[in-house]
Amino acid sequence: MYSEPLLVSQLLLAVSKTKLFLHHQERIPPSGPMLVVSNHRSFMDAPLLMSAVGRPIRFACHHYMGQVPGMRELVTKLGCFPLEETGKPQKKFFQQAIRLFETQQVVGLFPEGAQPMVEFTKPETMGQFHKGFAHLALRTPVERLCILPVAIASVEESVSSAVPLKLLSWFDPSEPLFNSSGWHPFVVYQRVNVLIGRPYWITSVQREELRGKRMKTVVAELIDYCQTEISELLRKGCN
Q1: Residue limits of the Phospholipid/glycerol acyltransferase domain (predicted)?
Q2: pLDDT for position 28
Q3: 143 sits in which H/E element
Q4: CA-to-CA distance for 37 and 59, rounded, in angstroms?
Q5: CATH number at 4-238
Q6: What residues have CB less than 8 Å from 136, skipping those under 6 apart?
Q7: d(C-alpha 54, C-alpha 69), whole Å
Q8: Do 101 and 140 form a contact (C-beta atoms < 8 A)?
Q9: Model pLDDT for residues 105-125, shown as the tens digit of each residue
């Protein structure tokens, strides 16, 4: 059964004439709670991942996306929920994400944060991951949670300047990246490989066992797994 976010995603890809090539589709669990983590360079990443996975994904998006007219309506249609202002605790997001997992839904996160969206980066490059997604996965009280690393490897794209960053600072003055005099890039994929990584499963038994270990070490291991998996797939997909 198709949901509105999934239909909107497929419509956006059709309108932009994006050719999506999906690799390792057999790695995608057909059901159950799942956390999708991916590299991030374009506004198209959320609809692209949703179309690839074939399930509605509730993506966390940057705070400013919920403030800008037009963009606010689009992210709402896609089922995204904006984060709190930069520097504030994301308690509300954690609570909402856990509720979604408890009802067997899919949550999407871009662990690199906003920087690769605001400052143009090459398709094969990827920044360091923030640790929030790992803490979320390890704290979610479900029997079995899948963390699915996915690489978005652009093969052909167009890049233009969307809006001045200073303009976005009017909507979200909390974001230091918007203090730059540059422009927000607008990346549209023409041909893109979406490569599904090997799932990382966290069970309730594992979660119980982790309580006796240092959380910092466990978080670092999970981040390293996802970052390495996506990085290797990215190199393959961009060649």
Answers
A1: 34-155
A2: 96
A3: none
A4: 10
A5: 3.40.1130.10
A6: 35, 94, 97, 98, 107, 109
A7: 28
A8: yes
A9: 999 999 998 776 677 788 899
Under DSSP, the state recorded for 103 is T
User: In the prediction, which pLDDT does 1 show?
Assistant: 39
Identify the band that residue 192 occupies on the pLDDT scale cut at 50, 70 and 90: very high
Q: What pLDDT is stored for residue 38 in this prediction?
A: 96
Whether residue 90 contacts residue 132, with contact meaning beta carbons closer than 8 Å, is answered with yes
Integer Cα distance of 45 and 148 in angstroms: 15
The whole-angstrom separation of Cα 129 and Cα 124 is 15
Note the pLDDT of residue 69.
60
Residue 46: both structure tokens together:
């959320």
Length of the chain: 239
Average pLDDT of the residues in 128-149: 92
Residue corresponding to tokens 């070490």: 217
